[in-house]
Design brief:
Blueprint: E1 4-9, H1 16-26, E2 33-38, E3 44-47, E4 50-53, H2 55-65, H3 75-92, H4 97-110, H5 124-134, H6 137-144, H7 151-162, H8 164-180, E5 202-205, H9 215-230, E6 234-239, H10 249-261, E7 268-271, H11 276-288, E8 292-295, H12 299-308, H13 319-331, E9 340-343, E10 358-362, E11 376-378, H14 380-390, E12 395-399, H15 406-416, E13 422-426, E14 430-431, H16 438-446, H17 461-466, H18 471-481, E15 489-490, H19 493-503, E16 509-510, E17 512-514, E18 519-523, E19 531-536, E20 546-551, E21 554-557, H20 559-562, E22 570-573, E23 577-587, E24 590-599, E25 610-611, E26 614-615, E27 625-632, E28 656-663, E29 675-678, E30 682-688, E31 696-701, H21 706-709, H22 775-782, E32 809-819, E33 827-832, E34 839-843, E35 858-862, E36 868-870, E37 873-875, E38 878-879, E39 881-883, E40 890-894, H23 924-928, E41 932-934, E42 940-942, E43 945-946, E44 948-949, E45 952-953, E46 955-956, E47 963-964
Helix pairs in contact: 1-2, 1-5, 1-8, 3-5, 4-7, 14-15, 18-19
């Protein structure tokens, strides 16, 4: 009998109802029912190799397993239970006080003469309602504060709390929380690999030797290694060398080196090219069996036909003709180079990956291993499943972007009549402000915008290592992310904070001062003998040894520190003692020198300022050395580039920052790759060793704090909102000159002596105080309703011209929505925008909305962006959507009822003609978009002004305070 497993979260708000219901039904002793805890957000039931998620789905699955225990064998009871499960889902999982208050009253009335929600026994309805109330913050706050005037509901709720199953299930949850406290932000590695048996699992890491390993590849490599080792199986490193135009021995060797650095050693290293002969023979079999055909259709036509589900003119060619043309491809003839081999699957399949994908293409570029033997090469889609089977792979772990290709993978295996391979999808590792596209990274290298593939601004393994990331921290972080399928754009803070934990205990402490306007400090009143002392490199880690520190009559401070000192102030010189400021000399605002007297017995705990300092030594080994401090910004200014974004529009203007400094004499001994901490500056890695002719180069290592991982260009590239033009105001003679505060009025308000009909007060203003216009009356005139019966006008109200008016935003209606034939995350929509012909729009909504959630819907369209080609299909507008902060939920904007295609969206107080087409260089959209937000009332706004049509305001479905883009 199979085991049923149910997983609950110990991290987020638990699914109390399913947890207690499962414990109650199984009596915690059913050997075939296991309750476990992890950090997933939703409860999950694994039953008969089927995975079920979500509170109601899980409750219903439990009810199916334990029908008798919950009395669901009675159809009347079952239907009533269904009602309450839906009621909870629709009404009790909300933070809206008005909604839930009404629900509490309804439940209280319902339970007046009842002990249970349904019938005379505990059912799933009791656990569903109790669980929903248990997780409702409003209910718990009201109950705790004694504000629940619902005696029947309270009675029933307290009875549920007293159940043994409730007490024991919650006890299990508490233990799981205690166990998981130290897990931090970790993912789950406990994934149910099908048919995984110890000693028999074989995984593979298949990089293409066309670039350097980046952090995304590192995750794939580590996960494959993790599962191979966990099951005491085998890891294959396989180079997918099917595109000789991009592949080099240099890339293959670098990947091997990086894998070794990551601590990953494959049990065997192979190449897809090892199987070229076998793959070729299989292709011939496909042709002979009528499962493949040779097509000479041009690329653009083929793309359009695949999108529209139109069969190629060559699809029904004879086997003999296909074999003849395939031989032309094999020889690389002029005719063969115009052809490709395509699988014959189903051109009407809703999954466009199944619409006759390409299996072979011609390429006359010599292969870096096989040379000129082959003139055509199998595509990844065709070669991958075959080679997985040939190499003995049992479990192919792939990023979730390949999910739509999984049916295609299975089809090739089935038609080839080879051993089946299990697939498991995991999410890609992606970070904000970071490009992982090999094509885009190559562009940066070729355009000389970076120094190479190991540039510290690059997300390659070599790049982040050069920036100061340790392999230990990288491994820990990736393993902590687990093998989940949830896609997130991760911040860089956690991985760098983890890196800090690794390097802090072993980083020697040193000192460097910014050289610009450095300040000389003279010790007066006594003679200080220049001496060099050995002090610990790290006070908490004596194993790091000692460094040499020079003490002398003349010292140096940074200008930024010296500018803060005051005459007579006592300050602390770190690792020496206290001094008292006796004199400060300046040139304008710049401090040029400071005189101090020593007070080395002073209490450093009582000083507010503690400064780093340096003294020039007398010997060559003790002299201060030239030091160059390097810091970097992200290469792009946008957190996440969309499919239609051109990277050139989001380049960070300056990404490298150099600061010349003076460093302590010990820095001359640093070797490339050494990591240190500069006191009061942060962690640095030596990128270039000191020589007599050049300074030591130190690269700043982020430590996870907000300022260390923030985009330096982000604030600069987000212009302030345009200021409204105002007329010059006459000075008010009655203002108090002592200080000014912003008025709570509009600047033109003069209160009347009549406060209201309840009472009167004397005016606090003199009779001759200046009188001004009444803003409220003026506003009322502007907003006076139109006379009844007068035809509505769709044009926006009059107002001042501003940047927002340059956007042409209208209502559109989606007439058709289909998947993009060549991009897994894109839809292609046909949208009526009130013009003679509908527009084609490409949008990246596949991961967020189903086609039926878009088709035939009214949407909000920005229609004057410059048309852009997205994977071969030109998009002529943008669908505006609301998105939560981490971009895990996206909703369409909803025009008001009665809207029709072409209705203009306007913003009150702002009038002007939109530009025919926005010029990308002017960045109008990039300037305006950050101020697009939804309100608590779900209204779409720009700078607080609603999106409006003549029919009303534009809203979103449920996302509050969400960004719109």
């Amino acid at each position: 009998m199979s085991v049923t497993k149910i997983l609950f979260s110990f991290k987020t708000t638990p699914a109390y109802g399913p947890l207690v219901a499962s414990y109650y039904a199984s009596k915690a002793s059913d050997p075939n029912f296991k309750i476990e805890f992890n950090s997933s957000e939703k409860p999950v039931v694994l039953h008969h190799q089927v995975e079920v998620t979500g509170i109601n789905h899980v409750l219903r699955t439990i009810g199916t397993i334990y029908q008798k225990e919950f009395h669901l064998d009675n159809p009347i009871t079952a239907s009533q239970v269904d009602f309450w499960l839906d009621y909870c889902q629709d009404n009790l999982y909300t933070a809206d006080f008005k909604t839930v208050s009404g629900c509490f009253d309804y439940l209280d009335n319902y339970l007046t003469l009842r002990s249970f929600m349904v019938g005379y026994h505990l059912t799933l309805a009791d656990f569903a309602v109790w669980g929903a109330l248990k997780s409702n913050a409003i209910f718990n706050k009201q109950l705790k504060g004694g504000k629940m005037d619902t005696k029947n509901l309270t009675r029933w709720y307290q009875y549920m709390n007293s159940l043994e199953a409730v007490e024991k299930a919650l006890s299990l949850l508490d233990k799981a929380k205690d166990t998981g406290k130290d897990r931090g932000d970790k993912g789950n590695m406990d994934i149910p690999l099908p048919d995984a048996h110890e000693g028999q699992v074989v995984t593979r890491f298949p990089p293409e030797p066309s670039g350097y390993l980046h952090i995304g590849h590192a995750k794939a490599a580590l996960l494959n290694d993790y599962f191979a080792r966990s099951y005491k199986g085998k890891l294959i490193i396989r180079f997918d060398d099917t595109n000789p135009s991009k592949e080099k021995d240099e890339f293959e060797n670098s990947i091997k080196e990086d894998l070794q650095l990551l601590g990953i050693k494959g049990d065997v290293v192979v190449h897809t090219s090892d199987h070229f002969d076998k793959i070729y023979q299989k292709a011939l079999e496909f042709i002979k069996n009528g499962d493949a055909y040779v097509d000479n259709t041009d690329v653009d036509t083929m793309r359009n036909e695949r999108f529209d589900g139109i069969e190629s003119k060559n699809r029904n060619n004879s086997v003999k003709e296909n074999l003849r043309l395939f031989e032309e491809m094999h020889k690389g003839t002029e005719l063969g180079q115009t052809c490709c081999l395509r699988a014959k699957i189903d051109m009407q399949d809703k999954n466009k990956c199944m619409r006759d994908p390409v299996m072979y293409r011609c390429n006359l570029t010599p292969h870096h291993i096989t040379g000129t033997k082959w003139k055509m090469y199998p595509t990844y889609d065709f070669a991958c499943p075959l080679v997985d089977s040939y190499d003995g792979v049992t479990h192919a772990l792939r990023t979730i972007e390949y999910r739509d290709r999984n049916p295609q993978y299975a089809w090739f295996l089935e038609k080839a009549k080879v051993r089946k391979v299990h697939i498991w999808d995991f999410s890609r590792l992606s970070f904000i402000y970071t490009l992982l596209s090999k094509r885009k990274l190559t562009w940066f290298v070729e355009e000389n915008l970076v120094t190479g593939w190991d540039d510290p601004r690059f997300p390659t393994v070599r790049g982040i290592r050069r920036r100061g990331m340790t392999i230990d921290a990288l491994r820990q972080y990736i393993i902590s992310q687990g093998a989940s399928q949830r896609e997130l754009s991760l911040e860089w803070d956690k991985i760098w904070a983890l890196n800090k934990k690794v390097i802090d205990p072993i980083s020697p402490r040193h000192t460097a001062l910014v050289n610009d306007k450095i300040v000389k400090v003279n010790v007066v009143g006594e003679t200080v003998k220049t001496e060099i002392k050995a002090v610990p490199k790290h006070k908490k880690n004596p194993d790091l040894g000692n460094k040499l520190t020079t003490y002398a009559q003349n010292l140096y401070l940074e200008q930024v520190d010296a500018a803060t000192v005051e005459l007579g102030e006592e300050i602390t010189l770190m690792d020496w003692g206290n001094v008292i400021v006796k004199d400060i000399k300046k040139s304008g605002d710049v401090v040029t020198s400071i005189d101090v007297t020593l007070n080395l017995d002073g209490d450093f705990k009582k000083t507010k300022k503690k400064f780093t300092w340096l003294a020039q030594g007398a010997t060559a080994d003790s002299k201060l050395i030239k030091t160059t401090l390097l810091d970097y910004d992200y290469l792009i200014t946008k957190k996440k580039l969309e499919e239609d974004d051109d990277v050139k529009d989001f380049l960070t203007p300056q990404t490298e920052f150099r600061t010349e400094a003076l460093g302590d004499s010990n820095l001359r001994l640093l070797k490339k790759g050494d990591i240190i901490q500069l006191e009061r500056k942060g962690y640095y890695i030596c990128d270039k060793e000191y020589t007599a002719n050049d300074s030591v180069h130190l690269i700043s290592i982020p430590d996870g704090r907000a300022d260390s991982v923030a985009s330096k260009a982000a604030s600069a590239t987000t212009p302030a909102a345009p200021k409204a033009k105002t007329q010059k105001k006459e000075a008010n003679p009655w203002k108090i000159s002592m200080y000014e505060v912003d008025s709570i009025y509009d600047g033109s308000y003069n209160p009347s002596s009549k406060v209201g009909s309840m009472y009167e007060i004397d005016s606090i203003y003199p009779k001759d105080a200046p009188k001004t216009t009444k803003a409220k009356e003026q506003k009322a005139k502007e907003e006076k309703p139109k006379k009844e019966g007068k035809k509505e006008q769709a044009a926006e109200p009059a107002g001042e011209a501003s940047l927002i008016t340059k956007l042409d935003i209208v209502v559109g209606k989606v007439l058709k929505v289909e998947r993009h034939p060549d991009a897994d995350s894109l839809y292609v929509e046909t949208i009526d925008v009130g013009e003679p012909q509908p527009r084609t729009v490409v949008s990246g909504l596949v991961n967020f909305l189903k086609p039926e959630e878009i088709d035939q819907k009214l949407v909000v369209i920005l229609k004057n962006l410059k048309p852009v080609s997205m994977r071969g299909i030109k998009s002529f507008a943008m669908v505006l959507c609301a998105s939560n902060e981490d971009h895990t939920k996206v909703e369409l904007l909803v025009p008001p009822k009665g809207s029709k295609p072409g209705d203009k969206i306007f913003f009150k107080g702002h009038a002007g003609e939109p530009e025919p087409e926005l010029k990308p260089k002017k960045k109008v959209w990039e300037t305006v978009q950050p101020d697009f937000l939804t309100t608590d009332d779900l209204v779409a706004t720009w700078q607080g002004i609603p999106f409006e049509t003549s029919k009303g305001v534009v809203k979103t479905g449920s996302l509050k305070k969400a960004h719109i883009k």
